[in-house]
Amino acid sequence: MQPRFEKGLIEKLEPYLVPIARSIAGVVLGVVLSMIGIVIAWSLYVFFGGRTIELWQASLFFSAGAGAGIATFVAWLHIDRENGWVLVLTALVVLGAGILGAWGGYRYGAAQEIECCAMPTVSPVYYTALGSAVVANVAGVLFAAGRAILTRKRQSQIHNTVN
Asked: Residue 8 in 3-state DSSP?
């Protein structure tokens, strides 16, 4: 009797399903943590008596971006096979992308308005949270794909002496 080496359906779909599941989890968790960050930023702004819109916007962008970046970092984390420098670089990339996404989402949301009423249909804060989560996750996907391509090339150069 010979062993079967054919892969099952789950094993064949795993390389496609895992990144999709990580992306969905990253966006959902990113929106949640981004909204929590926005609530914290708003609370601190009100509690400490902030007076300028620039201070509010800066705290909004950084808190929403940090929440989305943390969520993306957790969604794409490979703690068992990465060294500290790769983890730090991943964190910096997704946090920076989250902050830029929050800024871009706010800019996009502030420009959306109904012609008759001259006011936004949805609060720009919603677009801030969504933009930070989506951009941070796109950066996480690109970083993970680049990391996978580089490590695959590096692993193919190492010969297995055990077998």
From this structure: coil
